[in-house]
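Archive transcription. Copying these from loose printouts into the bound notebook so they stop getting lost. Printout 1 of 2:
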Amino acid sequence: MAENKIFTLPKLPYGYGDLEPYISEEQLRIHHQKHHQAYVDKANLLLEKMDKARKENSDLDMKSILKDFSFQLSGHILHSLFWDNIKPGVELNNPLGDLKDAIDKNFGSIQRFKTEFAQAALSVEGSGWAVLTYLAEVERMAIIQIEKHNANILPCLPAILVLDVFEHAYYLDYKNDRARFIEQFWYLVDWEEADKRFLKIVK
């Protein structure tokens, strides 16, 4: 039997200093190498723990281990999405094409969408995420909040755009000023990537 695969930390599609001045090299390096790496490592350890228990036919506290596994794995998945939906050199551009049309249709304007998305990110209780998603059954976009990595998340909803508002994402650069970090996020949004994600969902 082949050896079980494990989760791995994705390589960033840019250098650690490339997102300055919006995200510093130190902030990005710690966020990626320490925090994201920790979610990867812990998810793998929990898989090992479950495999060992099955092999030895020993008991597991399923409620506890699955809650922890959900948190760690969701952290890994959301961070992987986050790294890919930001990039250097954006300078506050806006979506084009199908994604722009969908945002205009659903929110009235790009500016209205940005306002609602920023408010969602700012008002997440404690640590969490703001996410632009798509509700296929009713053919409309929606903004959702995810507390921690896995509370309030709706199963099977695809992510078009995600913003990490855990303090570990911005504290070195912005201290406790989450609102300023959210403002700076728009200088980094990779709308081409967001458009690709949207088109995969609707076509």
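Printout 2 of 2:
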Amino acid sequence: MASPTIDVQVLYDANSIRGTFLTPKSHDNAISERLLERALAFDDDYRLGSDTLDVTWTTALSLIRELAPLQRKQRFRFRPIGDAKEQVRRFLQGYRALLSLKRGAATQLDINDIEHRLRAAGFAKRGLQPLQKCDVARLLFLSNGANFSVPGAGKTTVTFALYLLLKQNGQHLLVVAPKNAFMAWQAVVRDCMQDAGGENAEPFTVPSIIALP
């Protein structure tokens, strides 16, 4: 007779941004040992109880991603509780999108449609280079992402184009950057946007520095 499936509850603490794995006291400790073993491989910031393992939320998501394929074989299942449900759902959604991206799914996005939408938004003075178009297409495919490259590769232009494609009415772009990046952000509107671009063509405003007491 097969042993019953063990529920490993997953809890999320929004205040500390940590996760807790809770396993039933009546089970053998193989699952708990596996969780602890893999947690140590990711991070040494953990708290171990008699039936709990408390780790950073980043580590918790890494453990779920790595050990989820073993659930059926090892006869256990992760069961997110409360706020952890939405956090895990969003993480898995982004992870599946990343896997699809690696399989080339982003190439299915219509580059011509992206260019048309950018022109409609007033982004017409400077066209995107082929590699920049690919970067925009990939970032549009993901729920979150990052763009790393050498200076002068056009990261500011790509990010600004992405903002124009995603923005909703009334939304504004807040840029947090060192002072030496201000000039590039102020120039990107002038270099890329037509004067008739409406609010999209408004120049970036650098706020006054507020001295803290």
